[in-house]
Design brief:
single chain, 103 residues, mainly alpha, 4 helices, elongated, disordered N terminus
């Protein structure tokens, strides 16, 4: 029985981390899209950034950073990382509050 609880706990942690990272990357994509205007398809860009986030958040953050610089926005990579971290903290609060309510 404890083996089942350990597996569930590990799966819950994985699901939580995936949910938080996915939310933060989608928010980062939306933030970048606010700069691009009509120059790119919003749904396609969100899907692209989210797909890159599956590989790793660093890949998605680097993609957004390069795209912003290519469009002429002089953000430093640290600024894009701080935005991601902000969105990540928001996601952690939301996920934790939902888990608290569910408990």
């Amino acid at each position: 029985m404890s083996d089942y609880n350990n597996n569930t706990s590990s799966e819950d942690r994985f699901l939580r981390e995936n949910t938080i990272a996915s939310y933060a990357c989608r928010q980062l994509a939306d933030w970048a899209l606010a700069h691009f205007g009509d120059r790119t398809s919003s749904d396609a860009y969100r899907r692209l950034v989210h797909a890159l986030a599956v590989t790793g958040e660093d890949v998605a953050i680097e993609k957004v950073f390069k795209d912003l610089n290519d469009q002429g926005y002089p953000y430093r990579s640290e600024a894009v990382m701080r935005m991601y971290e902000r969105f990540r903290r928001e996601a952690e609060k939301q996920v934790d509050s939902v888990q608290t309510i569910a408990a």
